[in-house]
Amino acid sequence: MNIVVIGSGFGGISAAIRCLSKGHKVTIFEKLKKPGGRAFWFEKDGFTFDAGPTVITAPWLFEELFSLFDKKSKDYFQLIKLEPFYKIFFNDRNIFTYSKDSIINEVIKFNVNDADGYREFLKSSKKIFYKGFSLIDKPFITLRSMLKILPDLIKLRADKSVYKFVSEYIQNEYLRRAFSFHPLFIGGNPFKTTSIYVLIHYLEQKWGVWYAMGGTNSIVKGLCKLFTEQGGKIYYDSEVTNILCDKKGRGSRAKGVIINKKEKFEAEVVICNSDIAYTYKNLINREYRKKFTDNKINSYKYSMSLFVIYLGLKRKYDTLPHHSIVFSKSYKELLDDIFTNYKVPEEFSLYIHRPTATDSSIAPEGKDCLYILSPVPNLLSRTNWSTFGEIYKNKILEFLEYTYMPELRENIEIEFFITPEYFRDKLNSYLGSAFSLEPILLQSAYFRPHNRSEDVQNLYFVGAGTHPGAGIPGVISSAKIVERLIENSEES
Ligand SMILES: Cc1cc2nc3c(=O)[nH]c(=O)nc-3n(C[C@H](O)[C@H](O)[C@H](O)COP(=O)(O)OP(=O)(O)OC[C@H]3O[C@@H](n4cnc5c(N)ncnc54)[C@H](O)[C@@H]3O)c2cc1C
Prior knowledge:
Elements: E1 2-6, H1 10-21, E2 25-29, E3 41-44, E4 47-50, H2 60-67, E5 79-82, E6 86-89, E7 95-98, H3 103-110, H4 115-132, H5 143-156, H6 162-167, H7 173-178, H8 199-207, E8 209-212, H9 217-229, E9 233-235, E10 240-248, E11 251-259, E12 263-266, E13 269-272, H10 276-283, H11 294-299, E14 305-313, E15 323-326, H12 332-339, E16 350-353, E17 368-376, H13 385-403, E18 412-418, H14 420-425, E19 456-457, E20 459-461, H15 472-486
Parallel strand pairs: 1-2, 1-13, 2-9, 6-15, 11-19, 13-20
Antiparallel strand pairs: 3-4, 5-8, 6-7, 10-11, 11-12, 14-17, 14-18, 15-16, 16-17
Helix pairs in contact: 1-9, 1-15, 4-8
Bound molecules: flavin-adenine dinucleotide.
Flavin-adenine dinucleotide is lined by residues 6-12, 29-32, 37-39, 52-55, 185, 239-240, 273-274, 306, 308, 373, 427-428, 434-435, 463-464, 470-472, 475.
């Protein structure tokens, strides 16, 4: 079959590779100049900045893609294990070192009475992992499939939030934060995200946190190389501006795409890695949309956005590890502002990615290359980022200079930032959301837009907005689901 993939994020490239391995003719059209989507990269004056994902988990998911062609990922990129995983800096200068080897000692350092609770938490997280992770590559396109897992979800208490779940095992507030922040990496509020996501804790503890030498972009390049070596075609600067459909019986079906408003490209199957809300609203004519009307799309809850500052520095800040989390004093209130009140909070919590702690190849000698990420509301906040961006950036840099990075501003060689408007304008993300639909229980599995379009035949979805959701492991798994749906080997 002739298959078109719209977009070259991790979900799109993975779907393209999988379909190619089944003998189909596969073409990717990508709006931007380079692949990766959220995992785009910027290169400037000897510095290489990964734009987005940095915490690599579940490396076997990459290996699976290479094995489809009897290849090994190590011949395309090199992954190394990080230890410790993160350092967590609390507002009163307490530091939690989040690792595999000495995590229990850190728990004891904060509260000796939480040691047993932590051990129990790890056991529960393991149980949830083995149930939950097995669902990430299953298509939830029928209600029956959802009903089948309902007893398990009830048993696992999936209705509880991650924070609530953690709090049942752990008393100390610092530790509760340290073990509940993970949903933020996939666009979820720890106070609202289903506790199924505590599986990430076990995933990290058992298989580790990884880094790709050269940056996450080297994984993207490796996957694209595999795809093109095997005969796949990828075109850049090629924005799909319409998905061609026609009526079939009482429904409709996809039959190709229009590129850059002019060129027609026919296909028997169209796979969208483009943002799901944007796709339905802008690429599919209204007459073909029965369920996914504008009202339906507006009724979903979309995840937060991000403000990210990229810095090339004249010196190194060796006191910062590869991954740092900097917590503000408030936690729930800050998250309420971001997720519920759509207000840029007064305080900010930050994630700092400093890959030069591990890899000197991505910056000139003796220099640091890093990004500083602050979760902010999506564009429902109506913040004017073209003016507020500069103010917000200065506030963050001033704070870091005062706390963990002395003389920061005078050591900046390169500086630029992205705001929610980048996600809207560059990546075509509805409301500038950085992770598409929020991962709450009522927007998960069957309740998330399905991997096979409910409105248009021959149209499929991969990526953050469909099941299972955001994060590299999730979007790569969505490609596996789509491959099976196309091959008709799995129906529910
Ligand atoms: C700053 C940041 C940090 C993150 N950190 C992590 C992390 O550490 N670990 C982790 O696992 N996850 C992380 N994530 C989440 C993860 O990066 C994403 O969930 C995942 O990469 C999204 O992949 P995707 O397949 O949905 O595609 P996307 O990356 O969203 O790519 C979609 C592609 O489609 C293209 N496109 C859109 N519209 C069109 C069109 N009309 N025509 C042609 N092309 C189009 C876009 O240009 C883009 O290239 C992070 C995300 C961000 C933003």
